[in-house]
């Protein structure tokens, strides 16, 4: 059984719909997918799984976490699932596992089955069954059944004192299952083959004592087959309205896949023999897409075709099965968990404190809805706004707030450092350092192609993209337009993008905390801010074609604080490009460049300058020539550059830089040959509306 979660998770409505659709039993049963919830670290996979367990808590269900205990063999996992599924509900017949229990007893006890007389072997087996029953009854008489039920709450974490975990199923199954019934039912199933039943059990006992890998695999397959057959038999005798549910967390942990691979083989064998479908709905989770089988899709992360929750359904899975099926990968149904929307982040904020409502746009724009990160930012915002009474100025430094990461107690650290440690703990130390350098590039592949990782060892360079992609940290680029600067509208300039496959980028929140780390390195070091951006700019200048390389070269020039050069290029393009939209596209693409110090540090005992003040200061400091010659364009470029970091525009109703941006678009529209209509429309995107 799964206990009630602390709160209902956000953003899983479509996952619940798919779960209920597959869980509903129709007629005599049907083929069921292995639903695999994919999500990067911190995406709420475990929370979602436990919520599904709570929804299924009035029917047979079991939860097992492959990452919470030492790796176990497939038949041991089956035994633990059987314990959970055998929990007795009111007015429902308990699911019993006589075949699996008998097989476990034969495989995991020291009874002597080497005798030549079959009658002696049968007597030895019956004697072992009776002893198991008697010891179980004695234990329950001494300790009561409450503890037995408690064991079922978390099967892989709470061992029963004095008993072998693998034999708990036998111990708890026997009191309500007569020895003669277990003997008759279990023995008849093991007789399925050319050998006598006792011979088959003797062979199982012999294989279980072998250290050969092939023998161990045969034991696992036989006992997992018994587990599935017990489920099939129970549902054939006791019709139910819901399938039983196995919830498997972290199947990408060591040996996590073995049980499911074996389950697929058992299902394939049963189908080949014309047997009915088993009633076990499996919902698994994984943070590494390379650990999940499935249909090939070259344009998706780890080349795995994963459905968005809104597009997932039982019928979609059925229609995706190839005819004929050349592999068994069709059994798997990968579904990628989505990030939270702004309203969902608002709901989380309101659960924490009503006064956090105005901070919601900042939290969502920083985290892009990544669940763990959104919660960490909300906790930091609570400390700033509620506990210390701070406001927008203090929220600009939210990444400096102290935070901790899940796991063993550690010293609190700045939130950005805590995020890097938690989100990237699956990568090696070399990969984490290399990824920090790659964050300087707009498109992830550009960093690899530009050769900025030459100081790293070959293994790191060879595996970095594969492992970052497999852990779902590469995403399509976010459209650069008014919507990413605090204005209204998103995607309306995408028609200006060059044709061809969009380059993948690092998830924006992860990239932000990596850039924060890069900015603290000595700038001229081999992996420093200046060295890396200069190398990337040089590579883009050399490539020249397609045109995006030219834009990316100016992007890195701006990241190097070369504001004069950037304004000069955009001033030339202002009258040369064929349309206002094309010029706006280039303007936004270039001013998306990261800023080494995006938020001005406050002086001792003072608040730092406001973003509007910084626009004027930076323009005077970095582009004095352009300020005199192209004043409105210089102010616009500087304001958009600052606004690219959401910490500079915290307020929701009227971000502070919007008035400056709108005013500069109006100034540009007044110039001759400016494409005034398009610039005025763009100005409107930053103007307040009632």
Task: Produce a short descriptive summary.
By secondary structure, the chain is mainly α. It contains 30 helices and 9 strands.
What does this structure look like?
By secondary structure, the chain is mostly helical. The protein is built from 30 helices and nine strands. Helix 11 links the parallel strand 3 (244-249) and strand 4 (280-286). The longest helix has 26 residues, at 118-143.
Layout of secondary structure:
Elements: H1 13-23, E1 34-38, H2 45-55, E2 61-65, H3 74-85, H4 98-108, H5 118-143, H6 146-151, H7 168-173, H8 179-190, H9 197-208, H10 213-237, E3 244-249, H11 256-272, E4 280-286, H12 314-319, E5 332-336, H13 342-352, H14 360-367, H15 371-387, H16 392-395, E6 402-403, E7 413-414, H17 415-423, H18 429-438, H19 444-449, H20 458-470, E8 474-475, E9 505-506, H21 508-519, H22 529-543, H23 548-559, H24 563-576, H25 580-591, H26 611-622, H27 624-629, H28 631-643, H29 658-669, H30 676-684
Parallel strand pairs: 1-4, 1-5, 2-3, 3-4
Antiparallel strand pairs: 6-7, 8-9
Helix pairs in contact: 3-10, 3-11, 4-8, 4-9, 4-10, 8-9, 10-11, 13-14, 13-15, 14-15, 17-21, 18-20, 22-23, 23-24, 23-25, 24-25, 24-28, 25-28, 26-28, 28-29, 29-30
């Amino acid at each position: 059984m799964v206990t009630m979660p602390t709160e209902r998770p956000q953003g899983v409505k479509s996952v619940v719909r798919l779960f209920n659709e597959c869980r509903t039993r129709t007629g005599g049963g049907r083929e069921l997918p292995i639903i695999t919830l994919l999500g990067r670290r911190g995406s709420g996979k475990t929370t979602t799984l436990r919520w599904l367990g709570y929804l299924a808590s009035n029917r047979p269900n079991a939860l097992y976490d492959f990452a919470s205990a030492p790796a176990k063999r497939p038949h041991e996992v089956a035994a633990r699932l059987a314990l959970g599924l055998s929990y007795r509900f009111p007015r429902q017949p308990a699911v019993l596992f006589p075949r699996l229990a008998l097989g476990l007893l034969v495989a995991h006890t020291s009874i002597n089955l080497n005798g030549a007389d079959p009658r002696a072997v049968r007597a030895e087996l019956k004697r072992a069954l009776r002893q198991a029953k008697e010891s179980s009854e004695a234990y329950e008489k001494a300790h009561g059944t409450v503890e037995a039920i408690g064991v079922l709450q978390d099967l892989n974490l709470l061992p029963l004192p004095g008993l072998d975990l693998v034999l708990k199923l036998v111990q708890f199954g026997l009191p309500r299952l007569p020895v003669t019934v277990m003997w008759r039912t279990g023995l008849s199933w093991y007789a399925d083959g050319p050998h006598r039943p006792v011979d088959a059990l003797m062979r199982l006992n012999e294989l279980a004592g072998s250290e050969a890998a092939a023998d161990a695999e045969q034991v696992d397959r036989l006992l997992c087959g018994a587990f599935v057959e017990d489920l099939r038999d129970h549902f054939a005798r006791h019709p139910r309205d819901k399938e039983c549910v196995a919830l498997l967390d972290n199947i990408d942990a060591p040996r996590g896949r073995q049980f499911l691979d074996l389950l697929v083989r058992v299902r394939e064998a049963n189908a080949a023999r014309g047997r009915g479908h088993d009633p076990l709905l499996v919902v698994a989770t994984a943070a590494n897409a390379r650990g999940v089988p499935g249909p090939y899709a070259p344009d998706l992360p780890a080349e795995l075709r994963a459905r968005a929750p809104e597009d997932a359904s039982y019928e979609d899975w059925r229609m995706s099965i190839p005819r004929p099926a050349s592999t068994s990968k069709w059994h798997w149904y990968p579904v990628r968990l989505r990030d939270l929307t702004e309203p969902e982040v608002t709901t989380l904020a309101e659960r924490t404190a009503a006064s956090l409502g105005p901070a919601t746009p900042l939290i969502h724009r920083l985290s892009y809805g990544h669940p763990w990160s959104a919660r960490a930012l909300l906790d930091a915002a609570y400390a700033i706004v509620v506990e210390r009474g701070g406001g927008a100025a203090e929220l600009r430094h939210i990444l400096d707030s102290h935070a901790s990461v899940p796991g063993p107690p550690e010293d609190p650290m700045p939130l950005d450092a805590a995020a890097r440690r938690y989100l990237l703990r699956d990568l090696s130390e070399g990969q984490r350092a290399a990824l920090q350098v790659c964050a300087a590039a707009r498109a992830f592949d550009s960093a690899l192609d530009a050769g900025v990782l030459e100081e790293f060892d070959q293994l790191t360079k060879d595996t970095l993209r594969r492992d970052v992609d497999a852990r779902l940290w590469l995403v399509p680029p976010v459209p650069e337009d008014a919507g990413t600067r605090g204005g209204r509208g998103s995607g309306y300039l995408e028609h200006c993008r060059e044709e061809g496959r969009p380059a993948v980028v690092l998830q924006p929140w992860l990239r932000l905390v990596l850039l924060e780390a890069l900015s603290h390195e000595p700038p001229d070091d081999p992996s420093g801010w200046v060295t890396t951006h200069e190398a990337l700019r040089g590579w883009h200048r050399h490539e020249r074609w397609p045109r995006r390389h030219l834009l990316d070269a100016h992007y890195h020039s701006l990241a190097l604080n070369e504001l004069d050069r950037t304004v000069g290029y955009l001033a030339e393009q202002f009258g040369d490009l064929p349309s206002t939209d094309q010029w706006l596209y280039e303007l936004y693409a270039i001013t998306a460049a990261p800023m080494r110090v995006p938020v001005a540090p406050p002086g001792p005992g003072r608040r730092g300058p406001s973003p509007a003040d910084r626009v004027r200061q930076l323009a005077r400091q970095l582009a004095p020539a352009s300020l005199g010659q192209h004043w409105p364009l210089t102010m616009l470029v500087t304001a958009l550059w600052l606004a690219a970091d959401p910490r500079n525009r915290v307020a929701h109703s009227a971000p502070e830089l919007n008035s400056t941006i709108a005013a500069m678009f109006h100034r540009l529209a007044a110039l001759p040959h400016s494409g005034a209509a398009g610039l005025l429309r763009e100005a409107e995107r930053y103007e307040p509306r009632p």
